[in-house]
Design a protein that fits this description.
Helix 3 runs parallel beside helix 5. The protein is 32% helix and 24% strand. Strands 3-2-1-4-5-9-8 form a seven-stranded mixed sheet, with helices on both faces. Strands 6-7 form a two-stranded antiparallel ribbon. The longest helix has 14 residues. The protein has 250 residues and is of the alpha/beta class. Helix 7 links the parallel strand 4 and strand 5.
């Protein structure tokens, strides 16, 4: 890891202590198995019906992994560069008796065999930590078997532009849709550097890696709300706040 990635990892190790301090609450959430959004679950259902082996790039707290297994995945291998997050996720999987394994590693460059996954799952705040979106897409293609799928459910790249004003949507004067990166001083990033890939760059990277895009949908509903009473006007249905992408390796 270079200095930027190393600095980001330190920030996330600190932020991931939340997964330990709130372990019991997260365990109860995992028991419910309802972490997938309705449209996300609908899109994944045909893939999960085949009992796939799933590799989850940037698995974080691992609650999505529990939901994927409960929805039909044979097993999930979570990859995350936070040893704190991976350790807490592994402990939850053991307590629940589920086929979820965890590897502490940087993405891209995951230590997983070529062609070993039926499905690569990623999203919900992951792609902003990819400094090289092309390398990420190539790693996805490498890990997938022929006919395997990539599924992304993510914050829309336009989200950094929206203010959290409640009276009406506004664009932040300090952000650009075409910015290369920016420093995020809010929790949980805590000063880490984010890369701001636009939708065209993401789709182009996936196609260039040899994957066929089967679906791309944009949604007004964000995947994350702050834990307070904020009800931003940007979430009222007029602006894109999340998207789903499904692609297949030939």
């Amino acid at each position: 890891m270079d200095n930027v990635v190393r600095s980001n990892r330190v920030a996330w190790e600190k932020a991931s202590t939340k997964h330990i301090s709130e372990y019991d609450e997260l365990l109860e959430e995992a028991r419910s198995g309802e972490q997938l959004f309705p449209r996300e679950a609908e899109l994944l259902r045909p893939l999960l019906d085949d009992a796939p082996t799933v590799v989850h790039f940037q698995s974080g707290h691992g609650l999505d992994d529990v939901a994927l297994v409960k929805a039909g995945a044979r097993q999930v291998v979570g990859i995350d560069y936070s040893s704190v997050a991976a350790g807490a996720a592994r402990r939850r999987a053991v307590e629940l008796g589920l086929q979820c394994q965890y590897v502490v590693a940087e993405v891209p460059g995951v230590p997983v065999k070529d062609g070993s996954a039926d499905l690569v799952y990623t999203g919900k705040g992951a792609l902003i930590w990819m400094r090289d979106i092309g390398a990420w897409a190539r790693d996805v293609a490498r890990v997938l078997r022929p006919g395997g799928h990539l599924f992304v459910y993510e914050a829309h790249p336009a989200v950094p532009l929206w203010t959290w004003d409640e009276d009406e949507p506004r664009i932040r004067p300090d952000r650009s849709y075409f910015a290369e990166s920016h420093i995020n001083d809010t929790f949980p990033a805590n000063g880490a550097q984010e890369w701001q890939w636009n939708l065209g760059q993401i789709v182009t990277a996936v196609v260039a890696a040899g994957l066929h895009v089967e679906l791309l949908e944009e949604y007004a509903e964000p995947f994350w709300h702050p834990q307070d009473d904020t009800n931003a006007a940007a979430w009222s249905g007029r602006l894109p706040n999340s998207y789903a992408l499904l692609a297949r390796r030939s």
